[in-house]
Predict the 3D structure of the following.
Amino acid sequence: MHALSLPTWWIHLASVLEWGLAMLAIQRWGRRRGERAWSWLALAMLPALVSAMAACTWHLFDNAEALKGLVVFQAGTTALGNVTLALAAWNLARQAVAQQSVAEQAVAQQSAASSDGPGRPGHTDRSA
């Protein structure tokens, strides 16, 4: 544990804990809103968490040469995490556009129904 100072360890461990809590918060947010795309975002965060844990493990053992494979593993999970997070963000954006389109169609239908004429739908003005 001599490879890192105590404040650096604190930041490493706090970041790992914070990332895990963020994953839980995002998943709960998605459940509350009924939008599965948020759960996919939380899942997409997992490779980055694994990467951080690999880095902490390597540092815990004083950056031992025998564990040099952890550095490669960490690089791979970081790259995978970047890709999964990009895909999850794209999925969220795609979902937002689809929801906006549905909302705009509903507004258009309401305004079309209200411009059909005075009173109730189907009402005809016979005063002319």
